[in-house]
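R.M. (postdoc): so does anyone remember the format we settled on? I'll just put the structure tokens first.
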């Protein structure tokens, strides 16, 4: 959830986060004390946070739809629609959206995750009206026809080949997710299965757009140098004409308790093997969520963390290690540890070593100083990352997606309360053999191509 564990965000998105910078807000002020929330009659929620340290603002519109809303045979529609949202309306020509933003000195992009699709622009605050009008227009008037759709579907298929099919580690993580989940749509890749992408139609996408891109399934987050008293009415005027739609269907799937270890192998040409071990865990609604955040930091939070210190530095088994946990996933997700061995070392050795590090946590509660170091690292990342207007908006949006942006104010108090006994307790509760899914990349001889370096669990797609 925090920036240091935002490995799932990907490098391009992290660059955007750190690029839209203003001075951090006063740490003593809660978000609840600074955010202005309202809701339009059509159901669109407005979340406005003034920050007057620089004449810049970040506009984000969030739709409550991602790969978790999809079904077999129709995976990848949320990500494909993200692409199509830049293909124009009766008022705005294809690809003109980005050109208009850039001509006004702004930057824009979008990303799709398991839980949401987000569009954003960073620009001078006196130009906010430009992006507001563009977003209000394409919320209800997007053109989706075969002439525009067919070429973009081919683009997405090629993106999948590049990101997954030609990336052995990413392909392994995709299979790991598909194996870890038996009932919940978190098993689907965000980009979609290739056969679903290839068979999708403009009609499929139009129905998806009409079902989910309605104001009552969306909210706007704006952070930066503006007056909420003036911006609120401007947003209401721009979006009031967008009609409320039927409430989209709820995701009713609940992942049953795993009752035995699972294992998946991907055999691909690659220079090195790779291993990842995932466990089903709760999200922030569990009292165990904060302890899992601290456990993630202790295991994978940099070169002084346990996995790097033991497997890379001391034992010389691996050149890449890490841990991943999404505190703000909409539904319970996965806690994952992963590593890539050095040449001459095997995936089996590394799997055994990863499991040994987990057992150490279980057998002996970490010392208070180690827990304090992890808590300090989490808090520092959380505070320093808020120099970014974009990241403040991202936090508000992620917490709103999972239930209520006000929950953001509970994060640091929960982290500060975690003890070594809590960390050991959650390790015993969730990091068990029966709750484990192991994914292994078995490296077959290569034909000269090099694998993508440093690949980690795939997160939101731009």
């Amino acid at each position: 959830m925090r920036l240091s564990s935002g490995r799932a965000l990907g490098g391009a998105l992290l660059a955007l986060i750190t690029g839209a910078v203003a001075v951090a807000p006063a740490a003593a002020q809660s978000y609840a004390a600074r955010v202005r929330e309202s809701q339009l009659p059509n159901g669109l929620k407005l979340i406005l946070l003034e920050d007057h340290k620089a004449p810049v603002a970040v506009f984000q519109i969030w739709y409550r739809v991602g790969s978790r809303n999809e079904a077999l045979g129709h995976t990848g529609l949320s990500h494909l629609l993200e692409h199509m949202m830049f293909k124009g309306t009766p008022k705005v020509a294809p690809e003109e959206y980005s050109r208009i933003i850039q001509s006004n000195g702004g930057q824009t992009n979008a990303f799709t995750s398991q839980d949401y699709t987000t569009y954003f622009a960073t620009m001078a605050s006196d130009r906010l009206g430009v992006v507001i009008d563009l977003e209000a227009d394409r919320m209800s008037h997007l053109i989706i026809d075969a002439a525009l759709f067919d070429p973009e579907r081919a683009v997405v298929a090629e993106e999948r080949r590049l990101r997954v099919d030609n990336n052995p580690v990413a392909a392994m993580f995709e299979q790991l997710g598909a194996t870890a989940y038996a009932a919940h749509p978190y098993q689907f890749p965000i980009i979609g299965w290739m056969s679903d992408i290839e068979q999708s139609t403009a009609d499929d996408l139009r129905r998806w757009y009409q079902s989910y891109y309605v104001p009552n399934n969306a909210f706007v987050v704006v952070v930066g140098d503006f007056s909420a008293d003036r911006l609120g009415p401007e947003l209401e005027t721009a979006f009031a004409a967008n009609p409320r739609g039927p409430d989209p269907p709820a995701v009713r799937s609940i992942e049953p308790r795993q009752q035995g270890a699972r294992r998946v192998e991907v055999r691909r040409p690659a220079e090195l093997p790779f291993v990842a071990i995932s466990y089903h865990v709760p999200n922030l609604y569990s009292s165990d969520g904060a302890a899992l955040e601290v456990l993630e930091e202790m295991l994978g939070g940099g070169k002084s963390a346990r996995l790097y210190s033991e497997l890379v530095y001391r034992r010389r088994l691996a050149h890449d290690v890490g841990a991943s946990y999404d505190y703000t996933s909409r539904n319970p997700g996965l806690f994952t540890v992963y590593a890539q061995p050095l040449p001459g070392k095997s995936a089996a050795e590394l799997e055994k070593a990863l499991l040994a590090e987990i057992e150490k946590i279980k057998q002996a509660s970490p010392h208070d100083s180690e827990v304090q170091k992890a808590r300090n690292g989490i808090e520092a990342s959380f505070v320093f990352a808020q120099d970014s207007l974009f990241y403040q908006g991202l936090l508000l949006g992620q917490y709103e997606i999972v239930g209520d942006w006000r929950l953001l104010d509970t994060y640091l108090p929960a982290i500060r309360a975690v003890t070594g006994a809590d960390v050991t307790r959650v390790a015993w509760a969730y990091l068990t053999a029966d709750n484990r899914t192991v994914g292994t990349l078995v490296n077959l001889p290569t034909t000269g191509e090099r694998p993508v370096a440093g690949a980690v669990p795939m997160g939101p797609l731009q």
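R.M.: ...and that's the designed sequence above, right after the tokens. Also worth knowing: The two ends are 18 Å apart (CA to CA). The CA atoms of residues 214 and 245 lie 6 Å apart.
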